[in-house]
């Protein structure tokens, strides 16, 4: 196959491929075996779906309805892109009897538009506004898998993990904030077998690029004291600094330095930085000065000053945004912005403290909120999959259909912690 992200290679017969995929799907469902012609991207997604205990029978869960849905999507950043999405896809959807869907970063469908008959058919499996189509909730599907992988993907017929979705083919591409690069959601085209063509994936990618360009153009001019840079350090060992529109991937040590300086705009002395960065007390100031000199060459002398070491312009850090949202009680917004633990591989003492504090505060807020969707986001995430307290909280609010899977996971974690020590020891081990 020329492109692993396209469902059918040129010249492939859709009917023949469909029969082979159905047999492969049944083989996986009955025995966990992956057989030809399942693509690697689909096989990996099936395995993730199985680990998340997704039910193949569905349907998706509707999490936002009526006023809650309207208020949420009206305030969502992607609302500004919808006129462009509709202009580019309207005729395509009507003429082809397709659907166009836009979801948020958690896989919740915010808009589902297009052919009326197709909308009614899709509604039978809850492919409707407000329903969660994240891969961790309903398994392999184009918008959910595009979000999980942060790249465009096409899913054909029985490649879907949900059996009710086998009658559909879809192609989706992620949508990002053009200023910060943050994942905002995805745009999806859903229809029949006719969409199993490379052109549909190319088309949805073009729609995503146009939507992102529109967001960049319609963004209000930044105020004079607005950040000139953004720092993404959640869920990654090497932070990404976007400076004047250009992204720079930082080394691990430079990532730690930028995190600490972004957190302390008043600056840090050399001695303070040494204590906050290095576990080894024998590290000398010369080593630190060499790191800072290399970082200054990378950033430019106008951004990084010394005596004390400080950033001379505001830097918008993703971990600070999560903390602000938590402080204001916006738990769902904080969870949406949380891409994972802060610099998870870092052993710098100050970074470790900040990482644990942020994770503990967000986890406590999610558990206290007792919202099934937020708890599922946490429990099924890489950082929450072994969190017994979160799974217990999810078990207490799970739906009847979810309870067997969730309770089974709670029992597994109970057994693991019972064999390996107390819950506190297990939590400490999870944090590393």
From TrEMBL:
Annotated ranges, domain OmpR/PhoB-type: 245-311
Residues annotated as transmembrane: none
Pfam families, per the entry: GAF
Alphabetic keyword roster: DNA-binding, Transcription, Transcription regulation
Molecular functions (GO terms): DNA binding
InterPro entries: GAF, GAF-like_dom_sf, OmpR/PhoB-type_DNA-bd, Sig_transdc_resp-reg_C-effctor, WH-like_DNA-bd_sf
Signal sequence coordinates: none
GO terms under biological process: phosphorelay signal transduction system; regulation of DNA-templated transcription
Gene3D superfamilies: 3.30.450.40, Winged helix-like DNA-binding domain superfamily/Winged helix DNA-binding domain
Coiled coil (UniProt feature): none
Descriptive protein name: OmpR/PhoB-type domain-containing protein
Origin species: Streptomyces candidus
């Amino acid at each position: 196959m020329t492109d692993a992200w396209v469902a059918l290679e040129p010249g492939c017969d859709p009917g023949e491929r469909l029969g082979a995929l159905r047999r492969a799907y049944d083989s996986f469902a009955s025995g966990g075996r992956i057989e030809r012609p399942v693509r690697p991207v689909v096989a990996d997604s099936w395995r993730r779906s199985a680990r998340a205990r997704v039910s193949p029978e569905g349907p998706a869960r509707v999490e936002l309805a009526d006023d809650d849905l309207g208020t949420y999507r009206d305030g969502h950043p992607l609302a500004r892109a919808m006129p462009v999405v509709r202009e580019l896809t309207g005729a395509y959807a009507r003429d082809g009897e397709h659907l166009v869907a836009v979801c948020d970063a958690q896989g919740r469908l915010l808009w589902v538009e297009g052919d009326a008959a197709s909308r009614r058919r899709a509604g039978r499996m809850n492919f409707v506004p407000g329903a969660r189509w994240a891969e961790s909730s309903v398994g392999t599907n184009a918008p959910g898998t595009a979000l999980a992988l942060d790249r465009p993907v096409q899913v054909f017929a029985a490649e879907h993990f949900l059996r009710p979705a086998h009658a559909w083919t879809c192609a989706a591409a992620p949508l990002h904030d053009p200023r910060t690069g943050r994942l905002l959601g995805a745009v999806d085209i859903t229809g029949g077998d006719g969409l199993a063509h490379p052109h549909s994936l190319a088309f949805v990618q073009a729609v995503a690029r146009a939507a992102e360009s529109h967001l960049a153009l319609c963004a209000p001019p930044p105020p004079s004291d607005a950040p000139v840079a953004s720092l993404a350090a959640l869920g990654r060992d090497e932070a990404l600094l976007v400076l004047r529109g250009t992204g720079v991937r930082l080394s691990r040590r430079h990532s730690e330095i930028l995190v600490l300086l972004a957190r302390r705009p008043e600056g840090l002395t050399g001695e303070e930085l040494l204590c906050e960065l290095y576990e080894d007390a024998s590290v000398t100031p010369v080593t630190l000065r060499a790191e800072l000199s290399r970082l200054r060459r990378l950033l430019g002398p106008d951004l990084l000053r010394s005596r004390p070491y400080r950033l001379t312009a505001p830097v918008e850090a993703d971990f600070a945004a999560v903390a602000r949202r938590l402080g204001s009680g916006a738990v769902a917004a904080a969870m949406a912005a949380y891409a994972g633990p802060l610099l998870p591989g870092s052993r710098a003492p100050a970074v470790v403290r900040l990482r644990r504090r942020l994770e503990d505060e967000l986890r406590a807020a999610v558990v206290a909120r007792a919202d099934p969707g937020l708890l599922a986001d946490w429990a099924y995430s890489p950082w929450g999959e072994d969190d017994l307290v979160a799974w217990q909280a999810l078990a207490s609010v799970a739906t009847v259909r979810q309870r067997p899977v969730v309770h089974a996971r709670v029992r597994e974690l109970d057994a693991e912690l019972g064999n390996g020590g107390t819950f506190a020891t297990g939590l400490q081990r999870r944090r590393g």
